[in-house]
Design brief:
With 288 residues, the chain is mainly alpha-helical. Among the domains are: 152 residues; 30 residues. The protein is built from 7 helices and no strands. Helix 2 packs antiparallel against helix 3 and helix 6 packs antiparallel against helix 7. The longest helix is centred in the middle third of the chain and has 74 residues.
Length: 288
């Protein structure tokens, strides 16, 4: 399909042109053009040198032919003086042929001289043009460098350049990470203060603050219970001693002493191991 192939060709050429335009450096392009012009100038100089060389060869050949003309003319005169007219004719015929060659050489030398002059003039014009291009090239390169520097400075100042944009994104990521880390540190500190985390690395039982408070509460409750029990026991003992000290109203001191002794012996018998109520009663009977 011609239409599709033409469109594909246009798209490919457009893509290639865009890539080349992006990769093209004006300074490098100008330098390349200048080098090509210098090469052209060198080729022109080489052409002028070749023309001059060819002209010099023809001029040397012309000098030889001129010498032959003089020589043949002398020989013809000598042969004619010697009476050898045929030899003189032959010498003159050769002289004429050489003169014809001389005329052809003169025409060729004249053409080479004209070509040399034309190429020399072209070389001078090309040299002047290259010199102007060199000056213009340096000016364009300086202007391009200044414009490029101005663009970079403006992009850096406004933050729209690719490098500055990358720097800005990196800084924003660093700020976000810092804020996230600070928030995480605050959260961990708050949870640690609340006792949510259990420190598994500490030595000992590894209990937290809640466990410690519960343990102290339990211990305090046990102590309070024991203290109340002891107070109750001591309260019962004091009441018993009060009753024994009061006794009968008219009892004598001896009787009261005997009653106290018998009560004391009864308590001892009751508290002794293996003792029972019957043994205590039997031990108290002799006192009656």
């Amino acid at each position: 399909m011609p239409g599709l192939s033409g469109r594909m060709s246009t798209v490919v050429k457009a893509k290639i042109s865009k890539l080349l335009d992006r990769a093209e450096d004006p300074a490098e392009t100008l330098e390349y053009s200048y080098q090509k012009q210098i090469e052209l100038l060198q080729n022109v100089k080489k052409g002028i040198a070749d023309v001059v060389t060819a002209k010099k060869r023809l001029q040397l050949q012309e000098e030889k032919y001129q010498q032959q003309v003089v020589k043949l003319d002398t020989q013809a005169r000598q042969a004619l003086a010697a009476g050898n007219e045929q030899l003189a004719r032959t010498a003159l015929e050769r002289k004429t042929a050489v003169q014809t060659e001389l005329q052809s050489l003169d025409s060729q030398i004249a053409q080479l001289e004209a070509q040399q002059e034309q190429m020399t003039a072209s070389e001078q014009k090309l040299r002047a043009k290259i010199e102007q291009f060199r000056s213009r090239k340096e000016v364009i390169k300086a202007q391009y460098s200044a414009a490029e520097a101005q663009v970079r400075i403006s992009e850096a100042a406004t933050g729209v350049g690719e490098e500055m944009a990358d720097v800005g994104l990196a800084m924003q990521r660093a700020i976000d990470k810092t804020e996230n880390m600070r928030a995480r540190a605050d959260a961990v500190a708050e949870l640690e203060a609340a006792g949510t985390f259990e420190d598994l690395t500490q030595l000992g039982s590894g209990e937290d603050d809640i466990d410690r408070q519960l343990r102290e509460l339990t211990s305090s409750s046990a102590v309070d219970s024991e203290l109340e029990r002891m107070k109750a026991e001591l309260g019962v003992g004091s009441a018993a001693k009060g009753e024994l000290g009061a006794g009968a109203p008219g009892a004598s001191p001896g009787a009261s002493g005997e009653g106290a002794a018998s009560a004391a012996s009864g308590l001892d018998a009751a508290e002794a191991p293996g003792g029972d109520g019957a043994g205590g009663t039997s031990s108290a009977e002799p006192a009656q």
